[in-house]
Amino acid sequence: MKLKFSKTIVPFALIAFAINMISCSGDNKNDSSDGSKSKTPKVKLAFMTNATADFWSYGKAGAEKAASEHDDIEIEFKMGDGTAAKQREICDSLLVRGFKGIAISPPNPKGQQEMLNTWAKKASIITVDSDAPDSDRLFYLGTNNVEAGRQAGELLKEALPDGGKVMVFVGVGDQANAVERYQGLKEAVEGTKIEILDLRTDEANIGKARRNAEDTLTKYPDLAGMVGLWAYNAPACLKAVRDKGAIGKVKIIAFDEEVETLKAIDDGEIHGTVVQQPYEFGYQSIKALRSIIIEGKSASDLEIPNTKQKFIATKMIRKGGGEAYLKQCQEWKKSGSAANN
Q1: Rounded to an integer, what distance in angstroms lies between the CA atom of residue 251 and that of residue 237?
Q2: DSSP string for 88-132
Q3: CA separation for the pair 178, 155 (Å, rounded)
Q4: Which range (1-10, 45-54, 61-70) has the least confidence?
Q5: pTM attached to this predicted model
Q6: Which long-range contacts link 38-41 to residues 24+ away (Cβ below 8 Å)?
Q7: Domains plus CATH for the chain?
């Protein structure tokens, strides 16, 4: 009986062992396959701003929304301090860490041309908000800043139908968007009684922006208007005008959608603002970089004009439209937060 039992069970044991080995082999193959998929590295993309401002929080929301729509990319959103040196520090680090695409707003396009060209040899570079057309960047995505300057000029003419002296303020005077907005502004008021006194710069320092506004009000007691070409400039002017007790006497024209700006418009303290679409800057730039790097698409495939500049429309906000636009901005931020969760 003992011998018979052994002869019976051995074949069954061998069959069971073979089945188990086949099963384990299949499981191991699946595990290896799944493991290789999970270890496939995501393509790293970045968005690099020119300076730190609430304006860019909407761009961040757009970039995060774009990233949430794809599982093959990861992004980092970096804020500058208004200097080319800070951008060099950050972008050099990104490239060392293997980032394949960067959307950047250069504060000094001419001075950064060599810098941008060096980066363009290592990654796909597009400019956003501020262009560097003579560099090796792939293309520009953002505002037609000359046209936006003209819109600011139209608001200024509404605010000062009888003309008057006006000072203009910006962070960095030779940044492309500043140059072009200032150009458009002057074109719009040409032939009127509006006198543009000068362009005051603050190197993206909000404290200095406030002092510039205060000094201007002291130096020109007959000042009729102030125009802020960057997001924080008009709020800085507003604080100085309030302290001087000149609300209503000195008209303020703004750029962008700072919360304080939009509220002041509906309160009648700021005449109006020209708003861009920073959410779209962030969203479209990340989508474009992914299409170029992962899908192998060209600028023409993305319907970028031969000028290598794709413009995103701006619009003017006047009294009565501030709160509505503020709600829109808040929705953009929520969409970015939701995408990040």
Answers
A1: 10
A2: HHHHHHHHHTT--EEEE--SSTTTTHHHHHHHHTTSEEEEESS--
A3: 17
A4: 1-10
A5: 0.77
A6: 40/72
A7: 43-143+277-313+328-340 (3.40.50.2300), 145-275 (3.40.50.2300)
149-160 pLDDT, tens digit each:
999 999 999 999
> Whose CA is closest to 123, among 96, 106, 102?
102
CA 101 to CA 47: how far, in whole Å?
9
> Distance between CA atoms of 135 and 110, rounded to whole angstroms?
8
- What residue type is 141 in one-letter code? L
Residue 336's identity, in one-letter code, is: G
Query: How many angstroms separate the CA atoms of 67 and 102, rounded?
Result: 14
Q: Which residues contact 263 (CB under 8 A, 6 or more apart)?
A: 322, 323, 326
308 near 133, Cβ under 8 Å? yes
Res 164 pLDDT > 70: yes
Measured CA to CA, the distance from residue 64 to residue 60 in angstroms comes to 6
Render pLDDT for 104-136 as a digit per residue (tens, 0 to 9): 999 989 899 999 999 999 999 999 999 999 999
